[in-house]
Structures are given as structure tokens and as C-alpha cells.
Amino acid sequence: MPLPCLLPFFTKKYAKERERELFIFSSSCSDHKKLLYEMSSSLSSSSSYHGLEHALSAKNNRRRGSSHFSRSGTLFFSAFIVAFSFGVLCCLFSFALLHQKHLVPRYTNNRNRNAARTVALRRLSKEHPESASKKKGVSAKDICLFAPSTLDRLKPVLPRLAQTWAGTASIAVLASEEEVRKEIFDASTHREFTRERLTVIAVEPLPEYESRFPVNALRNLAMSGCRTQNATYVVLHDVDFEIFPNAPSKELLEEIEEVLKPNAKHGLVLPSFTADDRYLRRVETFRKEHDFSPESLDALNSFNRKEKLIELIKEHGIVESFREKYWPVAHAATNVSKWLSIAAEKKKDGEERRPYPVGANHRRSRHPYYYEPWIIIRGDIDDMPAFDESFVTYGFNKISWIHELAADGYKLFVSLSSWMVHTNTHLNRGSQTSGEMLQRCKYTANTGKDFRISRIGHSCIPRFLKRLDCAYHFGLDRVQWPTSNDTVPELYLMDTMRNESRIACFGGCVTDQELVPKTPKLAVLQDGQVTKRVVEKPARRRREACERLHVSSSATWTL
Predict the structure, then answer these.
(1) Within its chain, how far is the Cα of 260 from the centroid?
(2) Tell me: the pLDDT tens digits for 100-132?
């Protein structure tokens, strides 16, 4: 439609005084050729008498035309603005219709809407990872490491933890409230760590604990300390270890988010290493001289860098897999050789390396017996298995928890981004205990063909395995026995594990024939201040013969 045809619609105030002119003007839109033809015919047929009248009429028309031209210019400009606005509105309206029809699907229910929203978020995280991470992601404050300890072991460890761990920590210590406040909080030079990120649970040291350190009971307490801090993820830790590099690193946070989905029974294994004592002392001296600053660790260029770690293992032989010579089956399933080969390969552009699976519950795989890795799992699962508190001091305590996780259906994956190194040069309490006890077990008539079956803590193993078989239907046929390179038949070990009369050593567990000690009082301290006290209680009940030990169980020591 020609633009002049729109003018009558926007010039109502001139309608009355120029009705005839507007009518002729608007009519020209449809019949302008006809009107011009009639005007030219009338002019050609008029007589000369009318010439002068026609000239005067033309002069007046020119005068009117000039004023009409002025008014028409104003009207034209107004019409142009209105038409332009109208066109913009039409474009916006058309785009809205197109967006509604083709870009945003219609949903028949909330389930489809939520599914599409999830897909959109995934697409956003791939296209704009930096903006997606701002909206949602795992942060260091979501991760809490928990561990049992003693005062003499924890005090020299705090500077290292403050340097290499950016998350929170919950430590259960066998000491009085006054000792913890004096030795840990008042004497600490790393106030930022002890004030904001450290929780210490002081447990009254009973006389019964002098020879039987309640390691698994303290682990349950420390883990419940993480849960009271609303930590989403918990790290099974030992204060003698440190997690590298710059834990938790960005890559580790990404692995945690990928593997440990909400309500997923998954665990992330951290490969563990140990170094030569002489090398560790040199490292410790260097870090102390620089007050355990982050810059000192970077300048050291030691096992905090993956390429240096590989060099120390393969070229110098200073670092090796933890317990590789003393007790290799404990971490053999982690497959450190595979981990090192992946770490040594140069990553290609766009290549994604994901944690690899180990242990039970992967395509009919069996649980490797004696497996005891340090792992990260979700701490917000209510029915998460707890530690069996019948195991004390040394032997099978951590192994039993990993075994029960496998029975409960947990799947383990090995982290490719982070690792742990045993950096504490403190004398190992377990080594002291095991030396004399191993000699006693080794030369016992009931030992049989392999003294390993009578190791410390094994006196509780038959009942433990029977409980898992009854509670989880996780029998010995689901276990991978470490007998591939020795002469001890697998059936012999299985029979031994079922028969309590073959077990000779009782140093590592509290058997059902013994009295359970009372539950001592404890105090929870943060920044040197007591946030919770629990008075002395009667002895906790024993776990039942067919019970799934959960963190909420009354047989578990929690806050």
C-alpha cells in the first residue's frame, strides 16, 4: 500500500476543514489516473473566455498548494515516525512468534520441562564453562577431610595441612579439652586455618585406650563432624598424608562433580605414595625454613608436581607406591602403573581423560581383598556405611570399611588429577605394634600355611564377613583373593576366614567375648571455643550379627 494511503488515518484533526481536499487526495490512491485524465480533458475543452479565470484559479491554487505542501510535509514526517514504529513492533511480534513456535518447545508436563532445562544447562556448561561454573559447581568449602589422630601426631601436621589443603577438616583426637585448646589452637601460628577451617573433637582418653587405640570409633566421630558442617563430600584421610597438587585443585573439583553425582554410591580413589625418609627430612627442613609458605612448596619442585613425581619414581627410585614392598596387596587394585602411564602421556587437544574404574560392582568384577585406598565420597547420604568399631589399634580397620562400601554397592574410580604422599616422618604407631605381634602370630601352631591369615585384627574377621554376607548378601564368592602369585590356594583362605579356630592374634579388635568400654565425654572445638559438649554415656551396643552399619546406627559413635 502506498504511503499516502496511510495519511488519512493519522490526520483526524484536519478532517473537517479540509474534507474535500483529503477526499480527493485519498481517492488518488485508487483512482489517481482516472482523476488526472478527467482534469486534463476539462482543461482542453474549456473556452478562451475561461482562460483568465483559469489563470487566476491556478495562481490561487499555487498559493494554497504551498501552504498545503507545508502541512503535507508535517503530516508525512508524522506518518513516517508512526509507520517506522509500527514496523518495529511488527518485527518484534514476528520474532516472538517464531521463538515460541520453533525455539521454545511446548511442554505437556513438568517432567518434560525439567528435562529440557537440564539439557539447556548442560549445553550452557559446554559452550560457556566459565559462566556455568559461576552458577553451579563444587568448591573447596564443600569438601571436608576427616581423620583420627593423637596430639603428638596432629601438632606438627597442621602447618602442612594449612599449606596444601584449601577445604575444611574434622579431626578426632584422643586428648582432653584443655590439651587440645592449649596445644592446637593457642600455640598455632596458622590462625587462618585453625580459626575458619578446622574442627577438632577432643575425646577423653580412657585407660582402656592405652593399648587399644579406638581408630574406627574416632573415624566415625570425625566423619560426623564433617556432616555437622554440612559438607557435601568427605575425604577418608590420614594426618600423615598430604593431597597434591594445591588440593582441592580445579581438576579434582571437576572430577568430583563428574563422578560423585547426588545420591550416587561412587567413590573417588586418590593414589597414594611414600618417599624415602632421608628425602622427606630434607623436604621438611626446607619447608620449615620458609614457614611452610605456598611459595616454598612451588620452589621445592618435588612430589607436588606430577612430572616431578614421575621422575622421582622412575628415574631416582626415591618415591614408590604406598606399602609397595611391605604390603603390596593393600593398594594393588589402584593400578599405579596404569596411573603413571596415563600421567606420562601427553594430553591431546580436546582429549578428555576420565577416572578409570577399580574394584567391585563393575561388570561382575569382584572386590579385591585387603584393599584399603584413601577415597572421597558423598557425605550427604543418610544410609552411608559407618566404620566397624570392633577394629582397634592396627589391622583391618580401614580395610573393613572399604569392604563394607563394596558390599553396599559402591563403585570406585581412580582420580587422574590428584594424589597423596606420606610426608610425615613421625614413627609409625602401627609398625611398633605389628612388629611384636607378627612374630607371635608367625610361630603359632594355628597359623597354618600362611601367617597372613593371623595378622592383627583378624580375630574379628570371620564375624565381620558373616555379617556382610547376611546383611548385604555379599559373600566370599564376591571377593578377589590376593593369591595369584603365591602357593596358598584360594579355597584354603576362604575356609580359614570362615573358621574362627584358625585365628590366633587378638591385638587388633574387640571380640564379642570382651566388655565394651563406656562412651567417654567429648568436646567439639572450633577456633579454640567449645561449640558442643557430650557427657559420658554407657557403653554403645555391639553391632548385630546381621546389621548394616550406617552413620545413624546406635552402634556407631557420632556427635
Answers:
(1) 6
(2) 444 334 434 444 444 454 445 444 444 444 444
Helix (H, G, I), strand (E, B) or coil at 42: helix
| Partners of 375 in beta bridges | 269
- Separation of alpha carbons 128 and 119, rounded Å: 14
SS3 143: strand
At 340-363, the pLDDT tens digits run: 999 888 777 777 789 999 999 998
DSSP string, 314-337: HTS--EEETTTTT-GGGTGGG-HH
The conformation of residue 520, written as its DSSP 8-state character, comes to -
> What residue ranges define each of the domains in the chain, with the CATH number in brackets?
3-103 (no CATH), 139-428+517-534 (3.90.550.10)
Q: Please give the pLDDT value at position 223.
A: 96
| Alpha helix stretches (DSSP H) within 185-293 | 191-196, 215-228, 250-259, 277-289
336-344 and 306-314 are packed helices; what angle lies between their axes, rounded to 10 degrees?
120
Quick one: which H or E segment has residue 412?
strand 411-414
Mean pLDDT across the chain, nearest whole number? 76
Identify whether the C-beta of residue 272 lies closer than 8 Å to the C-beta of residue 374: yes
- To the nearest 5 percent, what fractions of the chain are helix, strand and coil? 50, 15, 35
Residues whose CB falls within 8 Å of the CB of residue 479, separated by 6 or more in sequence, listed in order: 366, 367, 368, 369
User: Percent of the chain having pLDDT more than 70?
Assistant: 67
Distance, CA of 45 to CA of 41 (rounded, Å):
6
Please name the residue that has the C-alpha cell 580412657. Answer: 206
Would you say 504 and 447 are in contact if contact means Cβ atoms under 8 Å apart?
yes
Q: How far apart are CA 279 and CA 37, in angstroms?
A: 111
The Cβ of residue 294 has, within 10 Å, a number of other Cβ atoms equal to: 13
* 447, 455, 466, 484, 504 from 451: Cα distances, Å: 5, 7, 22, 17, 10
Instruction: At 480, list the grid cell.
Output: 578377589
Q: Extract the C-alpha cell encoding 515.
A: 566388655
SS (H, E, C) 23-48: HHHHHHHHHHHHHHHHHHHHHHHCCC
Residue 200: phi, psi to the nearest 5?
Answer: -120, 130
Taking the CA atoms of 280, 285, 287 and 292 in sequence, report the sign of the dihedral they define: positive
Q: Say how far apart CA 500 and CA 506 lie, in whole Å.
A: 11
Give the predicted TM-score (pTM) of the model.
0.72
- Tell me the backbone φ, ψ of residue 127, rounded to 5 degrees: -80, -35
Closest by alpha carbon to 178, among 202, 205, 208?
A: 202
